[in-house]
Design a protein that fits this description.
The chain is built from 8 helices and no strands. By secondary structure, the chain is mainly α.
Length: 142
């Protein structure tokens, strides 16, 4: 991965955290994925942005790539589950169980997933699939 791609990723991530609209960030993360197609974090980020903008089919493809590139990335698994739920695909249990196991073994993973879920609700308050995932991962809302 070149420094340019790293800088682009960090810049896009900072813009997202600053509250920039998901729609405007999709081209940034598409470019990162085009330039560095083996960067799981970029595919996972792109999947999340697609989910936030109601493009579940594109989110599913991006999340599948992210998980294929890094099967141990818990957020990629969560994004895949969300995309599967949104598109009516079967097989979410395996991915939820892997994410649950990662969250139970590493308090930082648990905290990161909880923060990301909260961010999802902040950006899309009535996200039914995210509510299911939150319940599956952590029980009733914490």
């Amino acid at each position: 991965m070149t420094d340019t791609v790293t800088n682009l990723f960090e810049s896009g991530f900072e813009r997202y955290q600053a509250g920039e609209d998901a729609e405007s960030l999709i081209p940034v993360f598409q470019e990162i994925c085009d330039r560095s197609p083996k960067m799981s974090a970029a595919w996972s980020s792109l999947a999340w942005l697609y989910l936030l903008t109601e493009r579940a089919d594109l989110a599913l493809k991006a999340a599948q790539k992210a998980v294929k590139l890094d099967a141990n990335a818990p957020q990629a698994r969560v994004n895949l589950v969300l995309a599967m739920l949104e598109t009516g695909k079967k097989g979410v249990r395996e991915h939820i169980e892997v994410a649950q196991q990662m969250a139970s073994l590493d308090p930082q993973v648990r905290s990161d997933l909880q923060e990301n879920i909260q961010d999802g609700f902040n950006r899309k308050s009535d996200w039914k699939s995210l509510k299911k995932v939150e319940k599956w991962l952590f029980g009733e809302s914490e």
